[in-house]
Amino acid sequence: MPEYGPHVHNVYDMPHDAEVVRHGLTEKKSYAEPSREIPVIREVDVVVVGGGPGGCAAAVSAARNGAKTVLLERYGHLGGMATGGLVNIIPNLADIYGSQGIGGFCQEFIDRVKARGGADYPPRESWGKPDAPLVAKYLKANMGHFYVRNNDKGEQVALYTAVIDPEVGKDELAVMAREAGAELLLHTWVVAPILEGNRVVGVLVENKAGRQALLAKVVIDATGDGDLLNFIPTETVEYMRPGSRIAQFGWVYWVCNVDLARFDAFMEGSPEQYRETVGKISAEGGSAFFCRGLLEHQKGVVWVHRLIGSLHQTEPEEMTYIDVNARHTAVKSWELMKKYMPGFEDSFIMLTAPQLGTSGGKRIVGEYYLTEEDMDLDEPYEDTIAIFPDNDRGESSLKHPRTFVPYRALLPKGIQGLLVACRAFSADGEFSEFFNLIPHCMCFGQAAGAAAAIAVKKGIEVRDVPYGELKEALLKGGAILP
Ligand SMILES: Cc1cc2nc3c(=O)[nH]c(=O)nc-3n(C[C@H](O)[C@H](O)[C@H](O)COP(=O)(O)OP(=O)(O)OC[C@H]3O[C@@H](n4cnc5c(N)ncnc54)[C@H](O)[C@@H]3O)c2cc1C
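That is the input. Now the predicted structure with flavin-adenine dinucleotide docked in place:
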């Protein structure tokens, strides 16, 4: 079986810090914006800001639980990084021993996409099992990181991880929102929360219709980056360990029309020549790294995930630099692959991710702050909203295969009317490193949406939602809880 060795690895760094020109940060002048009347376009129960994994789950869950809900999204599609970022792998749904931890909205979404031929995952009987052909398939696809782990006997086992077709995913999320009765407003940037004292009562948006306001009893920040937190007097943190997974941009693209049989014949039949070719591509400024698309209907499609270390993932100058330069090296890599690598002769770049990949961002220090120690706790909290299979921490994962998350991790301190249901949930950098992925954010969203609806129905604060009622709503929505 062909295996990728250290000669074909991803480029984790594009040294760039010194090259980014930061005009924005050196300009000292300011401008006093005149106050003006803004039209209020909606008065609803729940406004969800951001249509990524967290926001879609939140909007569907709030609407299904009876709240009049609007979902706001800056782009023209739903799914956030999971679709527009082309990071369409939904991992760690079961632990290394095969026990499922994440169900609910996430499982429903995967099932619905699968029913349309747009998703794939290993059969249930193989989860946590040393299924050699399956393990070999994922290793050959360069997807071992998502699909293969060593169990306590040292055997390589297959994980329950799903892959989705991003286009089917975008459509299915819109279908789910529509069926649930949540209103969608796309192409709409949320620019600030509306605050009355320490209460969030709505948001200001900008779109082609200008600047407008939406009022809501509960606002859910699902922007990924925690955009609303920039304006809210609550404690936040941004620390990311340099070199960690969350301290990086991702620039993703797909190349199609690749003759993988020809590529395999070259790699297996002429290993020395293959290594030389990889070296030549690298020496000329490209990279031969790729993963194989795992969907049956995407034969001949390969994925390239360029990962670039950064501690400034919301800084526009740096985002611009990364987009321009990563695009240049992406096209250059493809040109070199086309020129030198057998199998790539007729290939072309079919898609570059419409959204630049951000992994970190601002986070709340909420009513419960999850830290490294919480990953080793084996007891659930009294307000547990999700069980996360813990597969990425080596020996520690074998000892502590599940991590629990309390509802309090979605509640910012000292603020009413706001829940956070995205990467910006309350956790330190080490906890986020492992648990801010697509399935996790979907769990946050499902819980936040249900809690918001209960709070509105009962006329109480979101922080006072009785856990028993929240648990009941989550179980009704298919969530797996202790
Ligand atoms: C390179 C890379 C690879 C990754 N690979 C995986 C993987 O394989 N599997 C996995 O599970 N996770 C992966 N992740 C992590 C995962 O994609 C994110 O953590 C996850 O998508 C977070 O979901 P979210 O809902 O918090 O935010 P996002 O997915 O970022 O969604 C936020 C949404 O809010 C919208 N939005 C933001 N600001 C505003 C605003 N002001 N107004 C209106 N709308 C706004 C955005 O457009 C977006 O749609 C990867 C991340 C990166 C960068």
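The chain has two domains: 17-22+244-358, 40-240+361-476.
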